[in-house]
Design a protein that fits this description.
This protein is an all-alpha fold and 334 residues long.
């Protein structure tokens, strides 16, 4: 049993299942108009393939432009946030542009608002994280052996933890900016919200990648930090001190990651409360005109009440009524 649990195929399969579960949970947060699974799969596939390919090239270019000591110490905190967030964001820009084009041509906007941006951003981030973790497994296994590669992989995927959500949270920040831009009526909003989201994504990514390097450089100097990060020989006593500092920094970085995920969830919950209030206020006019009954108005903002009604109709075999009611609720939300 233990041998099976440490097999690469088992770990990779488990990581894939975990990524899919995370994506479904994030999609579940969109209580009023969930995005099609097919569209989310396409966005996630871009994150796992196209975004990774662009990042491999772009990271190499940016690292080559940095001075050697800076590149060894802060390279991952400079290159990765700039290149990877842009590569992931490219799919979101294309998706929102196509949605805008469809709205102009057919009269409906599929991707709009904060929630849609968060869900699609998380999808591309989870796809990217899955492939990136796999590449770390292969690279470390090639350099130091399979056991070291599996250990690195397990620490990055963070089985039953939240480590795999880092890229999802970063990309969701940019997605949220794009989503808010769809509601803006000025060019400042069209440009400002996505730019703010992209900067937030890059900053969070930079903090995650650069906190250990920053503490090492601040305490021991740039040259010593570069030597340690580059694997060069340094005095034994100094190495022990730097290793202790790096371990503390890594632990702090993990706490920051958990805080970011908690903030992400809290913001989504607050946004859902805002959505519920807007739906209730905007549909009050339909109740006054008699278009909507008071019972339906009470049901609409409540996910659990709507779900209970759907299950009641399904249990009674009223499939057509169930489909019709879901369509009506979607129209009311729009």
């Amino acid at each position: 049993m233990t041998e099976t649990l440490t097999q690469p195929a088992f770990l990779v399969t488990f990581a894939l299942i975990q990524a899919v579960v995370f994506l479904l949970l994030i999609r579940f947060l969109d209580l009023y108009e969930r995005e099609p699974l097919s569209a989310l799969a396409i966005i996630a596939a871009w994150g796992a393939t196209g975004a990774v390919a662009l990042s491999l090239v772009g990271n190499g270019v940016v690292l080559g432009l940095l001075p050697p000591a800076v590149g060894e110490t802060f390279g991952p905190a400079i290159a990765a946030p700039l290149v990877e967030e842009a590569a992931k964001g490219l799919a979101l820009v294309v998706a929102f542009y196509l949605s805008w084009w469809a709205a102009r041509r057919f009269g409906f906007l599929e991707l709009e608002g904060l929630t849609d941006g968060i869900v699609y951003g998380a999808a591309v981030g989870l796809g990217f994280a899955f492939t990136e973790d796999l590449l770390y497994l292969l690279n470390v296994a090639d350099e130091r052996g399979l056991e070291a590669g599996l250990s690195e992989y397990a620490s990055r995927v963070d089985f039953f933890g939240l480590g795999q959500l880092g890229h999802a949270v970063y990309a969701a920040a940019f997605g949220a900016g794009l989503g808010l831009a769809t509601w803006s009526r000025s060019w400042r909003g069209w440009l400002g919200f996505p730019l703010l989201g992209l900067v937030a994504a890059m900053m969070m990514h930079a903090v995650h990648n650069g906190l250990p390097s920053l503490l090492l450089a601040w305490r021991f100097g740039l040259e010593n930090a570069a030597a340690a990060m580059g694997g060069r020989s340094i005095p034994k006593e100094l190495f022990a001190q730097m290793q202790a500092t790096a371990e503390t920094a890594n632990a702090t970085s993990k706490v920051v990651d958990y805080v970011l995920v908690a903030v992400f969830v809290a913001l989504v919950v607050l946004w859902l409360r805002h959505q519920r209030r807007v739906i209730r206020e905007e549909l009050a006019a339909e109740v006054r005109t008699g278009l909507l009954s008071h019972e339906e108005w009470v049901m609409m903002p409540s996910y659990w009440n709507r779900t209970k009604e759907y299950w009641r109709l399904l249990g009674e075999g009223k499939l057509e009524r169930w489909r019709l009611l879901r369509r009506i609720h979607n129209e009311l939300v729009d």
